[in-house]
Design goal:
four-stranded antiparallel β-sheet; DNA-binding; Arc Repressor Mutant, subunit A; Aspartate Aminotransferase, domain 1; WH_DNA-bd_sf; PyrdxlP-dep_Trfase_major; aminotransferase; 3 domains; single chain; 14 strands; transferase; Aspartate Aminotransferase, domain 2; alpha/beta
């Protein structure tokens, strides 16, 4: 019988901090390096430390030194020895364990760190994306579809051989680009060839790439007010000045540009099919005005069509890209909402004459997108599964939207007016006048286990604090029931944010 080979644990990759110039003995330096890694959580309970033979080869330290350091760890309760198995990090760390300065001197004062002005601006203005929690009304959840999950798993098994993988094409797998080109032509009226498409790690990387190529630090970009926060933050990180224009029921209002109040920007960032976060649709007349203005003033338009697949009433209005005759529009989309966020696959469509410069810049940001996920999605599209998946998903999302709107109307009509969206996976509610602080409402709801996002956190210059964003994708009836009951309790007890209390 062939003996079973013991596999190396994560600690095999650990590299101790050793200072050859230090007067501290090597065993103590190694002991402190390992102890501090345990105290800081870099080495965790139950992990097997490398054998003295392997550690000696990896760390260039004698086995005697390593054995002595391990013995100190064991004596102080940071490690345990298991006969015939090896040395393991203890499951319970000694109480009060903290990092020790290897010099054994007094703890140094914290070093002042300098970061970029752009990073400081993002830190102070916020918000950044928080880790997603499975709570009622959290945005970005995905409605699980068992049939699609089985198909994706089956397709994935075809592409699991990594033995011969190398770097892929800068723009992404051609098969996926061709499938996206065909899909966009039919569903969004986007006219492009596979050669114009760049596969990206979601929409965010597509935006970053577009902003880097099209604008120079100090340029101005016009955005919708309120605006999708990560897009605005990406502009700031690239040194771009941001100007917000208000959004109403017909989308972004560019009258201040048309009447000459504001100078022409280098670019626009817009979500015309379903404005994030308000949910309005840019009217056809305003689409044509925006395209005409961009052509006349040599402006770029970055069109974020992040959830165009989910329209519930009527036919979708043509994409800006589909109406653009002057090649001023760059179009971006994603599979995060329609399939899985964890796939991290988005795409950017650029004018044909800009392909060389985008190909030149792309490797400086990301050499190439991962091949495995691309091949899975390409097969899913090419084999015709996507349309049926979208039909099933749309019906489920429509039902979730209507269910949530019904609960809100039944239990919170005194406090909120529901703005029922024709598209997307979120809905907005506006104050009826009984409250005037969306951040206070959001904080009170979160303390009770419900997530409602205050739109004021997304304002650029607006001072409106009367709107909240609720997600309904992946929302069960039980969650909607519980969540709306909790919100009703929040408003009834809201002495700090409700008027006349």
């Amino acid at each position: 019988m062939t003996p079973r080979r013991r596999r190396e644990g994560p600690s095999a990759a650990f590299r101790p901090s050793i200072d050859p110039a230090s007067v501290a003995p090597l065993p103590r330096q190694l002991y402190l390096s390992l102890r501090n890694a345990v105290a800081e959580g870099r080495l965790t309970g139950g992990q097997r430390l490398p054998s003295t033979r392997l550690a000696a080869a990896e760390w260039a330290i004698s086995r005697g030194v390593i054995a002595e350091a391990y013995e100190i760890l064991i004596a102080e309760g940071f490690a345990v020895a298991r006969h015939g198995s090896g040395t393991y990090i203890a499951s319970s760390i000694p109480e009060g364990a903290a990092r020790i300065d290897p010099s054994d001197g007094a703890s140094m004062q914290p070093t002042r760190r300098s970061v970029s002005a752009a990073a400081t601006a993002i830190l102070t203005r916020g918000p950044s994306l928080e880790p997603q929690k499975t709570l009622p009304f959290v945005t970005g959840r995905i409605a699980h579809d068992e049939r699609t999950a089985r198909l994706l798993n089956r397709i994935a098994t075809r592409h699991m051989n990594y033995a011969f993988e190398g770097y892929g094409d800068i723009q992404g797998e051609y098969a996926l680009r061709a499938a996206i080109s065909a899909h966009l032509a039919v569903s969004r009226g986007v006219r492009c060839s596979p050669e114009q498409i760049f596969i990206t790690a979601g929409t965010q990387q597509a935006l970053d790439l577009a902003f880097r190529v099209l604008m120079t630090p100090g340029d101005t970009a016009v955005v919708e007010d309120p605006c999708y926060p990560p897009a605005r933050q990406c502009l700031v990180l690239n040194g771009i000045d941001v100007v917000g224009l208000p959004v109403d029921a017909d989308g972004i209002d560019i009258n201040r540009l048309l009447d000459g109040t504001l100078p022409p920007p280098a670019a626009f960032y817009v979500t015309p099919s379903n404005q994030y976060p308000v949910g309005s649709v840019l009217s056809l007349s305003r689409r044509l005005e925006l395209l005409s203005y961009a052509e006349e003033n040599d402006c770029w338009i970055i069109e974020d069509d992040y959830d165009s697949e989910f329209r519930y009433q009527g036919h979708p209005i043509a994409s800006l890209h589909g109406l653009d005759k002057a090649n001023r529009v760059l179009y971006t989309g994603t599979f995060s909402k329609a399939l899985l966020p964890s796939l991290r696959i988005g795409y950017l469509v650029v004018p044909a004459d800009l392909v060389p410069v985008f190909r030149a810049v792309r490797p400086a940001v990301d050499r190439c997108p991962p091949s495995f996920q691309q091949r899975v999605i390409a097969d899913f599209l090419e084999e015709g599964y996507f349309p049926a998946h979208l039909r099933r998903l749309r019906e489920r999302l429509r039902a979730s939207r209507d269910m949530l709107a019904g609960f809100l109307g039944e239990r919170l009509a005194e406090h909120v007016a529901v703005l029922l969206p024709d598209q997307g996976i979120n809905l907005t509610v506006r104050s009826t006048g009984s409250w005037d602080d969306d951040t206070a409402v959001s904080a009170a709801a979160l303390r009770k286990g419900v997530v409602v996002m205050p739109l004021s956190r997304m304002n650029v210059v607006s001072t409106d604090r009367s709107r909240l964003l609720l997600g309904f994708s992946g929302l069960s009836e039980a969650e909607a029931d519980m969540g709306t009951r909790v919100l009703a309790e929040v408003f009834e007890g809201g002495s700090t944010f409700c008027r006349d209390r």
